[in-house]
Amino acid sequence: MITLRVRVLVILVLCVSGVAVAQGYPERPLRLIVPLAAGSGTDLMTRLLAQRLGERLRQQVIVDNRGGAGGMIGAELAARSQADGYTLLMGGSVTLTITPAVYKNISYDPLRDFMPVASISRFYSVLVAAPSITAKSLSEFIAHARSHPGELRLASAEPGTASHLAGQLLSSMARIDLLQVPYKGGTMRLNAVASGESHASFLTVSAALQFVKQLKLPLFGVTSPKRLSPLPGVPAIAEIVPGYEWSGWQILMVPARTPPAVINRLRLAVTDVVASSEFKQYLSAEGSEGFHQTPDELRLFIRNEMTRNGNLVKSSGAHAN
Asked: Who is most buried in 60, 67, 72, 241, counting CB within 10 A?
């Protein structure tokens, strides 16, 4: 039988070894997996984070884009990686909470296979309307949709994606019937709205800031709980549909069983980057914002988002093999 003294000694040894690991970490470059193609808003933000994180850790942080299957390819690769703090995952709302609900055969569990390191950012979308639409505001858009169910076409990405579920949530909360038409990529959705082929679409604020103003497309509402500084004249959808909120987010994750001392070392460095004025300004310009939660709060946050988004996926009927 193990005596109390032996147990104490074992705990002390583990604590000392953990501190030693943290003091020597990192000793080689880190790999940061982004489960999206290069060039996306998340990818560009991650590259800035990687550069500044590398400066603080005094090691290179290499961004590794592994897009496909709703982020499943990159997430599965990260989940199978050694839990030593040298492989990181930029976990997003789609990869961690939507894809597991859409795909039947998925080999990773967001809560079982990963540990959250730190929250990075939260980003929102804006409902963009066609210039030819008769409605001139979100209230008129909703009123028209109620009197003409299934007539208004909403350009979205594939079923079960963020833009699709943002529309699903609006339909449910505003009690309207929108005909969601899938398009591949934000550019195709933007073109569909600009040409009048579709009546509206949810686009990221960064995309709206980059293209929509040039095309002079009406902006009916942002999905944030309150108005955003880059678009002060655009109302929050919640002003018309109380309680409406839709956001994407990024949380830096590591494989489960990564040493706690290593996770803490990473957390301190990442939090320092996210709190910097440079990073805050970058996020604000993109219509995003930082948000801070403890690791325990992040696990609960992810669990709650899995439930909410899973219910939306189920009600939408979206699924993939």
From this structure: 72
Domain regions of the chain by residue span = 14-123+247-316, 124-239
SS3 255: strand
Closest CA to 186 of 160, 167, 199, 204: 204
Q: At 297, give phi and psi (nearest 5°).
A: -65, -35
Per CATH, which fold does 124-239 belong to?
D-Maltodextrin-Binding Protein; domain 2 (3.40.190)
Sequence-ordered list of residues with C-beta below 8 angstroms from that of 214, at least 6 positions apart, any chain? none
User: In b/e form, how buried is each residue of 294-320, taking b as 16+ CB within 10 angstroms?
Assistant: ebeebbebbeebbeebeebbeebebee
Tally helices (H) and strands (E) across the chain.
13, 10
- The answer to whether 243 touches 308, Cβ cutoff 8 Å, is no
Q: Which two tokens stand for residue 184?
A: 């591949």
Are residues 114 and 299 in contact, defined by beta-carbon separation less than 8 angstroms?
A: no
CB 202 within 8 A of CB 167: yes
Q: How far is CA 37 from the centre of its chain?
A: 14
Please provide the CATH number assigned to the domain covering 14-123+247-316: 3.40.190.150
CA distance 182 to 180: 6
Tell me what pLDDT residue 230 has.
87
**pLDDT value at position 129?**
95
List residues bridging with 123 in a β-sheet: 248, 288
- Residue identified by tokens 């039988």 is 1
Q: Which of 231, 226, 262 has its CA nearest to residue 245?
A: 226
Under-70 pLDDT residues of the chain? 1-23, 321
CB 137 within 8 A of CB 220: yes
Element (H, E) at 156: strand 153-156
* H or E segment and range at residue 73: helix 72-80
Whole-structure pTM value: 0.86
